[in-house]
C-alpha cells in the first residue's frame, strides 16, 4: 500500500481544485505517519486486515505481515476499535489502547471512496510509550483527582460522620452501651436502638455503621415521624417517573436505593403506618424494593438500624405495630440509658459541648464551676443529651462570665414545682404560675434587660410587655 494513494478523501474546497496538491498532501501525510509512528494498519469494509506495515507486525508478535492479511482485526488486536470506525465512519483521533501489558497511543480514521462511502479504516500507533504524553496525562490525572474529591465531598453527607470516639462517656452504662454497639457493628443483623429522645440513638447508629464492614458505603437516615404519611412509601422505595400526582416527572430514588450497600437508619420507627410496615417487612425479608408506579423489582443490599423512643412492645399489644415486623427489627436491641442514669458522664459531656460551642461561635471556651455542674446534675433531663447541649448553648449566650455557675442555669431549668405539679392543681393555674416563674427567672438572668429576657424566652419583646402588664408584680422588671 505504501506509495499508493491511501484514498483518504480530503475535500477539494480545502485545497482548491488542484488534484496535484491534494495527492501530495495525502502522500506526505501517510508517509510521515507511517514512518514516524510505531506501526500502521488498514482494514477493509468488513474490518479484515488489508494491509499492515512491518513495524506493527513485529510489535504484534507476527513473523510476517502476510500472516495478518485477511484476518478479522480483533484476531490480531483484541481491543481494536477499527471495526467501530468502519461501522460509524467516525474517526477516533487520539486514544490509548491496551495491548497486553502495553499501552499504545493510537489514531484511527475511516477510508472513503470518491463517492464518500466508507471502504475501510486506517490506524496508526503514534507512540508505544504513553510517557510521551506525560504532561497531558498528568493534567488529566489531576483533574480526575479533583473530580473524585468533589464527589467524595458530596457523598460525605451520606456517610457516617461519627465514630465510637464521638460517643463520649466512661460511666459503666456508657461503656456497656459501646461494647454492645461494637459487637453489633461486626454483625450484619438488623439493630433496634431503644431510648428516650436525645439519648444519642442517631449518633450511635452512625458509629455502628462507621465500625462495620459497610463503612465505605452510604449511611442514609430517615426520620419517619418527619415525613407525611402519604409520602412515606415514595420516600422509602422511590417512585417511577410520573408515578403519582405531583411526583417529580423524572422519578426519584428512595432511601433504600440511596443506602444500597450501606446502612439505612430509620428513626422513630414506631410512627410508621401499618400498610407501610407490611411493605418494610417484605423488603427486609426479600431485600427487594418496588418503586411506586413501576412494576419492576430492584435488588438492594441494605442493613437497617431502627430506633424508637416509644414502647414498641406496647404498640404491638395495642395492634399499632406489626408483631412480625417488631421481631424482624428486634434481632439485636440496644437500650440507651437516659442522661439522669449516667450522670457520671455529665462533666465530660459538658466539656465536649462547651468546646464545640466555642469552636462554632469563635468565642473563647467557657468553663463550669462545681456548683454549676451540681445544678445540672439536679435536673431530670427529659430531653437528655440534646437538652443538655441546648441549655449550655443558651447559658453561653446569656452569660458574660468565663465560668458558668449555678445561677446561669437556674432560669434555664424548670423548677421542681413546674416539673411536677401537685395533684388537684388546675392546669390553667399551673400554666399561669409556670409562665410567671419563667418570666421572672428570665428577667433575673438578663439583668433586667427585657429584650434579652424576651430572646431567652423565645417570645417577642411586645409579647413580654403584654404579659408583664397583665401579671401583678411583673412590672418590677
Ligand atoms: N454520648 C454522646 N457523646 C457526645 N454527644 C452525644 C452523645 N449522645 C448524644 N450526643 C449528642 O446529643 C444530640 C442528640 O443525639 P441524637 O440525635 O443521636 O439523639 P436521638 O436519640 O437520635 O434523638 P431523637 O430520638 O430525638 O431523634 C446530638 O447532638 C448528639 O451528637
Automatic annotation (TrEMBL):
Organism for this UniProt entry: Roseateles agri
Keywords: ATP-binding, DNA-binding, Nucleotide-binding, Transcription, Transcription regulation
Chain coiled-coil ranges: none
UniProt xrefs under SMART domains: AAA
Domain Sigma-54 factor interaction positions: 167-397
Name this polypeptide is given: Sigma 54-interacting transcriptional regulator
A Pfam family assignment: AAA_lid_14
Amino acid at each position: 500500500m505504501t506509495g499508493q494513494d491511501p484514498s483518504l478523501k480530503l475535500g477539494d474546497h480545502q485545497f482548491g481544485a488542484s488534484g496535484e496538491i491534494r495527492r501530495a498532501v495525502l502522500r506526505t501525510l501517510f508517509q510521515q505517519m507511517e514512518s514516524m509512528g510505531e506501526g500502521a494498519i488498514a482494514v477493509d469494509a468488513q474490518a479484515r486486515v488489508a494491509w499492515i506495515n512491518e513495524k506493527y507486525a513485529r510489535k504484534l508478535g507476527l513473523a510476517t505481515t502476510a500472516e495478518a492479511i485477511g484476518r478479522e482485526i480483533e484476531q490480531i488486536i483484541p481491543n481494536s476499535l477499527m471495526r467501530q470506525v468502519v461501522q460509524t465512519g467516525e474517526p477516533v483521533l487520539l486514544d490509548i489502547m491496551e495491548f497486553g501489558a502495553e499501552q499504545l497511543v493510537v489514531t484511527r480514521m475511516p477510508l472513503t471512496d470518491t463517492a464518500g462511502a466508507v471502504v475501510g479504516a486506517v490506524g496508526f500507533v503514534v507512540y508505544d510509550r504513553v510517557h510521551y504524553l506525560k504532561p497531558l496525562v498528568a493534567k488529566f490525572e489531576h483533574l480526575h483527582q479533583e473530580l473524585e474529591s468533589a464527589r467524595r465531598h458530596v457523598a460525605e453527607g451520606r456517610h457516617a460522620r461519627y465514630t465510637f470516639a464521638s460517643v463520649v462517656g466512661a460511666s459503666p452504662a456508657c461503656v456497656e452501651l459501646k461494647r454492645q454497639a461494637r459487637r453489633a457493628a461486626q454483625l450484619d443483623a438488623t439493630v433496634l436502638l431503644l431510648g428516650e429522645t436525645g439519648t444519642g440513638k442517631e449518633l450511635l447508629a452512625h458509629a455502628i455503621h462507621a465500625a462495620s464492614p459497610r463503612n465505605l458505603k452510604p449511611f442514609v437516615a430517615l426520620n419517619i415521624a418527619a415525613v407525611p404519611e402519604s409520602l412515606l412509601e415514595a420516600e422509602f422505595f422511590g417512585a417511577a417517573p410520573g408515578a403519582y400526582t405531583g411526583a417529580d416527572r423524572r422519578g426519584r430514588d428512595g432511601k433504600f436505593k440511596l443506602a444500597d450497600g450501606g446502612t439505612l437508619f430509620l428513626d422513630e420507627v414506631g410512627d410508621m403506618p401499618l400498610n407501610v410496615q407490611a411493605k418494610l417487612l417484605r423488603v427486609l425479608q426479600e431485600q427487594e424494593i418496588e418503586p411506586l408506579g413501576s412494576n419492576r423489582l430492584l435488588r438492594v443490599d441494605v442493613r437497617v438500624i431502627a430506633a424508637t423512643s416509644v414502647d414498641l412492645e406496647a404498640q404491638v399489644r395495642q395492634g399499632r405495630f406489626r408483631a412480625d415486623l417488631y421481631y424482624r427489627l428486634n434481632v439485636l436491641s440496644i437500650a440507651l440509658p437516659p442522661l439522669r442514669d449516667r450522670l457520671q458522664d455529665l462533666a465530660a459531656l459538658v466539656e465536649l459541648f462547651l468546646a464545640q460551642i466555642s469552636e462554632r461561635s469563635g468565642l473563647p471556651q467557657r468553663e463550669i464551676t462545681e456548683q454549676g455542674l451540681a445544678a445540672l446534675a439536679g435536673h431530670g433531663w427529659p430531653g437528655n443529651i440534646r437538652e443538655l447541649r441546648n441549655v449550655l448553648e443558651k447559658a453561653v449566650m446569656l452569660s458574660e462570665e468565663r465560668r458558668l455557675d449555678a445561677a446561669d442555669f437556674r432560669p434555664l431549668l424548670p423548677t421542681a414545682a413546674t416539673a411536677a405539679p401537685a395533684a388537684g392543681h388546675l392546669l390553667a393555674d399551673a400554666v399561669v404560675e409556670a409562665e410567671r416563674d419563667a418570666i421572672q427567672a428570665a428577667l433575673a438572668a438578663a439583668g433586667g434587660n427585657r429584650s434579652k429576657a424576651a430572646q431567652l424566652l423565645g417570645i417577642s419583646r411586645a409579647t413580654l410587655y403584654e404579659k408583664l402588664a397583665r401579671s401583678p408584680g411583673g412590672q418590677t422588671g
